[in-house]
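Entry type: protein chain
Record version: 2
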Amino acid sequence: MQLDIVTPEKKAFSDEIDSVVVPGIEGELGILKSHAPLVTTLAPGELRYLKDGEEHSLAIGTGVVEISNDRVSVLTDMALDDSEIDESAVEKALARAQDSMKEISTPEEVAAVQVSIQKSLAQLHIKRRRRRL
């Protein structure tokens, strides 16, 4: 099946794959060939895909996934593989976001900072997991 991952800046990935797992707002969603058509919301986290027996992963942000006709289209605000992640910069951003939680008061601000924290954690997970392999 075809997997396309698009961010506002670029087409991050486009290729034939065997399967993909995306982080949905209700939990992980595994997708195989001939999956029923579906559109759902993505949560920041790890997208994993299998191609020729090898697993690959990307840190993704919020967005949507559409599944139809053996095509999976991911539209997200962030899609990074481990080579694009600066661990030190992400750790600093995470610390700033966690510190800012002490000073915010509205539910909207809390939600925005929580998404920022989730994105940072996803990037660190990808970077550190790759280093362990």
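Comment: The chain has a mean pLDDT of 93.
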